[in-house]
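pasting input
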Amino acid sequence: MQIRIESRSGREVVKGGLELPDDATVADLQAAFHAKIKKFYPSRQRLTLPLGPDQKKATVLESSKKLSDYFSKTSKPVVVFKDLGPQITWTTLFVMEYLGPLLLYPLFYLFPQALYPWAVNSQISANRHDYQFYALLAWEFHYAKRILETLFVHRYSHDTVGYYFLLKNCTYYWGFALVISYFLNNPLYTPVSETQMLVGFGIFAVAQLSNFYTHLILRNIRPPGSKGYFIPKGFLFNYVTCANYTTEIWAWIGFNIATQTLMGWVFIVGGATQMTIWAVGKHKRLRRTFDGKDGTVKYPRRWVIFPPFF
Amino acid sequence: MGNVKSIYLILYNMILAGGWTLVLVKAIEALRTSGPETCIEACIPALQVFQTLAILEIFHSLFGIVRSPLFSNIVQVFSRVFVLWAIVYSFPEVRTSVFGSSLCIAWALSEIIRYVFYALKEALGEAPYIVLWLRYTLFIVLYPVGAGSEVVLTVLALPFVAASKKFSYPMPNRLNFAFDFYPVACGVLFSYLYGFPFMYTHMLVQRKKALGPPKASPTKKQS
């Protein structure tokens, strides 16, 4: 089968096209393309069928399918190629963005003399609170947990992600780690009451454990190597579509109740907004995939992310 | 609906063109009667109204009422509103600087031509060539003069910013947050290093698009 590869403007990308056996898969096509142009490794390629006359969204070729599923023998097969840009794996992205907070946050706790040069030593030692030590433990626990989960627990429905996400996400995580730590470990820090602190860290601890459990559930519903979508079941997932986000948000609410910094609240409002956007997307996708028609399961009625509000 | 939008935009641009004409008249009057040191003081009330109204343009862009790039719009409006309210209004000490007069005149001239251009374009579909040419030519001089005056006035205000502690929110407090206007003002000054070339090249590109390679009917005149 002779396949013509063209860009979205119709220019031929691989001169003369690619010759593949009739029973080849899309993955074989991607490999052959990669062999011709070294720069475009498979995860960087987005291959679609040309747009039909009334079509708005192009059909993306799935790498596990056969070329013969898309093209009849008689047609002259054309595949439209889009360069997705340099890709990194989700694992790299997550480890990088969490490594910043893990390493940067302790600096203000460990080296107050150097980082708050305007404060005198007596002021620093007089204003050391146990709270700040507990906050440090909570923070480090959270990011260490996330890195370990990234490496050993998570399974992804996609392999890679665009390179620019690294810059964007690292700016967000590293930046907030620095400002939150700056104010929390500040010699002029004002702690909350002991009861409030205990309540806050209590919520944090419960939410963190629940969050870990939701991640285990998500891992187990996705068999190794699979890419499709599944209905999460059990524990909090019986009530909320994205219970993993719910517990994440509650962990940070707990942290902020215990530590009370304006920047900490801004951080979680920003994070919760982003997670809500993702959760709405996932909720809609699950409702669409499992619509109860043609004998499929119907997606049950659930909260999206934050009961009892949403 | 299209009509309402059009009438609104014509009115908005005409009112602002009028407002900035008022600023220009006041500035020239003050220049002639009592010298450049009194210029900005005389213009402040009018500036407070008409420069602040320009914030609406960010929303015009945001809600797609006009087709103009949101980011450059924000940069432009923010820098002027900042200089007007956070510097000139809050630190009266800088008002006697002669750069107050160059600020008023450069702002007023560039805004009058800009709003007249938009009002005519909205009303007639296309502005007369002379207005188009002025809109995309005068900025070459007016923009550096205006931005330069903004920078000088901000620099002049810095010692007063440091001394007065205005707008500062020091720790300790229950929010565990601190704000100090001095580094923020320095940050804004620093951002001109990036913002000015960005805006100037943006305008030069716009100029090329608007006046550049003669189109199919370059002699098209207003009937």
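fyi The first strand of chain A starts at residue 2 and ends at 6.
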